[in-house]
Write a structure and sequence with these properties.
It is globular and about 45 Å long. It is of the alpha/beta class. The protein is 31% helix and 21% strand. It has helices at residues 2-11, 28-41, 87-100, 115-120, 124-129, 151-162, 174-185; strands at 18-25, 74-81, 105-108, 166-170, 193-200, 206-208, 215-217, 219-228. Strand 6 and strand 7 (215-217) form a beta hairpin. The strands form two sheets. A six-stranded mixed β-sheet has the order 3-4-8-5-7-6, covered by helices on one side. Strands 1-2 form a two-stranded parallel sheet. It has seven helices and eight strands.
Length: 238
């Protein structure tokens, strides 16, 4: 997800000249694969050393007209194996990030399929070829949390601690999106707006979710929840 975010920000011209991205996964295989992809996409990238030349086809605002990253600019991308539920993660990542700098964006595609759904409704191609660890979360410590939702309270806790400007999390369907939206509403840290993005959020169907201030964008099933502090973002823009 970190590499995809760098690509999309670069393509749209929104990648800041000073940028740091951290990807975290509990699977060493996933971390190794992400590191290999980083070397393939950014062969000349070294931490805090800049990029030569630009990223893919789109040049961001951090690049000059030749497609080179300015010498005073840095693009830092790192990947780490970690369990976000542990005290060690809180110490190493959360408390360290709070001390180091502000956090602008948190993106997460956590395991969100309930065990019963994995066995009954998940496509065979997914069950057979994707690791269960990436799909099915552990049992939630809180009995009030539904199966499949175990990661969301922790992700929201981290986002609140880091005072992230925006949060984007993937969900399984509209029911889960609504549950995550209600978790967000209960936080002490308040974002300016919560949105549910359907399968195609670029489709210009935008409605208010009944009884809330949330926006629901696009058509299809619920696929992501987006909370942000972009108070000047018009309702028609994503």
């Amino acid at each position: 997800m970190s590499l995809l975010l760098v690509h999309e920000l670069s393509k749209s011209g929104a990648l800041p000249a000073q940028s740091h991205f951290t990807g975290v996964d509990i699977s060493q295989n996933a971390v190794d694969l992400a590191s290999l992809n980083k070397k393939r996409i950014f062969p000349n990238l070294e931490n805090c050393a800049g990029v030569q030349p630009g990223i893919g086809e789109g040049m961001s605002s951090g690049f000059d007209s030749s497609g080179s990253f300015p010498t005073k600019a840095t693009l830092d991308i790192e990947f780490s194996k970690a369990d976000i539920f542990t005290n060690q993660f809180t110490k190493d990542f959360v408390e360290g990030a709070v001390r180091a700098a502000e956090c602008n964006i948190i993106m997460a595609n956590p395991p969100y399929i309930a065990p019963a759904d994995f066995n009954k409704t998940t496509a065979r191609s997914v069950r057979n070829f994707e690791p269960r660890l990436a799909l099915v979360p552990p049992d939630a410590s809180d009995p009030k949390i539904q199966p499949g939702d175990a990661f969301y309270p922790r992700i929201l806790e981290i986002a609140q601690a880091l005072r992230a400007k925006c949060l984007l999390v993937e969900v399984a369907d509209m029911d889960q999106a609504i549950r995550v939206g209600r978790m967000i509403d209960k936080l002490d840290y308040k974002w300016a707006r919560t949105e549910i993005w359907r399968d195609d959020p670029s489709y210009h169907d935008i409605v208010k979710f009944p009884g809330t201030d949330w926006l629901v964008r696009g058509r299809g099933n619920g696929r992501s929840v987006f909370a942000h502090n972009f108070v000047d973002l018009p309702d028609g823009d994503i």
